[in-house]
Amino acid sequence: MSTSTLWDLTGWEFAALAFAALLVGFSKTAVSGANTVSLAVFAAVLPARASTGVLLPILIAGDVLAVLTYRRHAHWPTLWRLFPAVAAGVVVGTVFLLWADDGIVRTSIGAILLLMAGVTVWRRRRADAGAAAEDEPDGVVTRAGRLKARSYGVLGGFTTMVANAGGPVMSMYLLSAGFRKLGFLGTSAFFFLIVNTSKLPFSAGLGLIDADSLLLDAALVLFVVPGALLGKWAVTRIDQRLFEQLVIAATVVGGLQLLLR
To answer: Suppose 168 and one of 17, 33, 46, 232 were both cysteines; which one would form an S-S bond, judging by CB atoms 3.0 to 4.6 Å apart?
Structure first.
């Protein structure tokens, strides 16, 4: 990202980025997956590759706020099972970024998101609508659950590295594993804080983060806080079924945006 690109932003372009930053905060404390809209806005206003470097520190700011809000609800056995697979996905994503152009990246991730949303809807419809959620998510107590965790982990690591789009993939995993609302938000908060922070040296090494991108981040991060507060207020007013529907809808919208751009 060049200095001229940063300082040549129009008022409308900056306003669009500010709204996207606010939406990041909202998604981190309310409807995970909604920040795929932020991804699309950043990629539309800024050069596509540069946009991922600008967005990453803003996502980390949202992750910190989410951890402070939901730190008591994280399910650490699930996190420990996911991290090795995610690390493998991040490495694959880094290699992929060395040769893939923006079109290939967008098409690949859009297709993955829609596939994950479809699988999750199918699984939720098979489940008994009146059954109570299990105390222990199936992601850690069965062999099939552990295999599913590894598969989603690799996909999550790959998509978060190449386009900061790991949120919807992990949302689909946590829903399919049977997480309730607060457990979902607490587990995803710690997951993305750790994963996004670990991506910083990779992104800097690829030239996606520099002094110019950090200057823009400094201006935009202020909008993450009100978004997070709005999300914290909203989540207590959303029931479990609506919460799941919103997460799936945000994933589908994000996938379609990536495919149609």
So the answer is: 33
